[in-house]
Write a structure and sequence with these properties.
It is built from ten helices and eight strands. By secondary structure, it is α/β, with parallel strands linked by helices.
């Protein structure tokens, strides 16, 4: 059975100006349940991540400042909102949800996290609404527990996975791939194992052609045993932060290509949602729900 990490704290209200993006974390599972794509049995509420697992990926001083709520104001501004205990608990549950999802995927082929994709958090910094890097944490956990020895991270959010690249830069067992808007945030890029920077305004055909050409090469180069997929829907033409021009159909085909790649090579995959900032919440939720539908159709039990 496909498992989906969700906790009510995912939709934790943020200060005014940040609440709208949080709505999707309630609406995505609600829409999937309403359409009969999933049942309550598919959902699980993750626990909080343990400190020892945080420290596999994040620096001790940074973790202490987070856990003690003493992160300097300048660093909190870099994250984008003030630090508080509920926000930290939210991130700990998100990262744990990605770990538990990965373990579910090992057994059943596919798992999702309704939140996650916090790829701007580096080893000793938070940035872009990200405190802890869920997929980097989960990938390091799988290596540490000797569950897998070769892992691929496919990051197709419109923004580069700079934190993921930085955390994993010296870990040859994890291959980081980021395909993103070249002129978009973050403006100081880190170096992934493979970065493909895209021009503003890129449309479906060109985007999908690049991805179709790249995915087979990733397998040939790294021969992964497990995949983490960051499926941000900020690639949509409607996205106010994205600068690309994909349609919903193009975004859905992007997802299909990744899941087909995993199916063809018998690779378990954990999926985190990443960004989505279209003015109409329906566009965000529809595109994210398409990711679930395509994945479950191709890889579900």
């Amino acid at each position: 059975m496909v498992k989906i990490a969700y906790h009510p704290l995912y939709a934790h209200p943020l200060p005014e100006g940040h609440r709208f993006p949080m709505l999707k974390y309630e609406l995505i599972p609600a829409q999937l349940l309403h359409e009969g794509v999933i049942t309550q049995e598919n959902l699980f509420a993750p626990e909080q991540l343990k400190e020892e697992t945080v420290l596999l990926s994040h620096a001790p001083e940074y973790w202490t400042q987070l856990s003690d709520l003493t992160l300097p104001a300048k660093e909190q501004r870099r994250i984008g909102f003030p630090l508080n205990a509920q926000l930290l608990e939210r991130e700990l549950r998100i990262a744990q949800g990605t770990i538990e999802g990965a373990l579910h995927a090992k057994e059943h082929g596919l798992a999702f996290n309704v939140a996650g994709g916090t790829h701007h958090a580096g080893s000793d910094w938070g940035e872009g609404f990200c405190l802890l890097n869920d997929q980097a944490i989960a990938a390091n956990y799988l290596l540490h527990k000797e569950i897998y020895s070769r892992i691929l991270i496919v990051d197709l959010d419109v923004h580069q996975g700079n934190g993921t690249a930085e955390i994993l830069q010296h870990e040859p067992r994890i291959f980081t791939f980021s395909m993103h808007g070249e002129k978009n945030f973050p403006f100081r890029k880190e170096v992934s194992d493979l970065d493909i920077g895209l021009d503003d305004g890129l449309e479906d055909e060109a985007y999908l052609s690049i991805l179709a050409d790249t995915l087979p090469k990733l397998y040939e180069q790294h021969e992964p045993e497990f995949v983490f997929y960051l499926s941000g829907v900020d690639v949509l033409s409607s996205d106010k932060l994205g600068k690309l021009a994909l349609t919903k159909a193009g975004c859905r085909e992007r997802d299909r290509m990744v899941f087909q790649f995993c199916k063809d090579h018998r690779l378990p995959v954990q999926v985190s949602m990443g960004g989505g900032y279209s003015p109409e919440i329906r566009d965000i939720v529809d595109a994210h729900c398409n990711t679930y539908k395509v994945g479950i159709d191709l890889l579900g039990d």
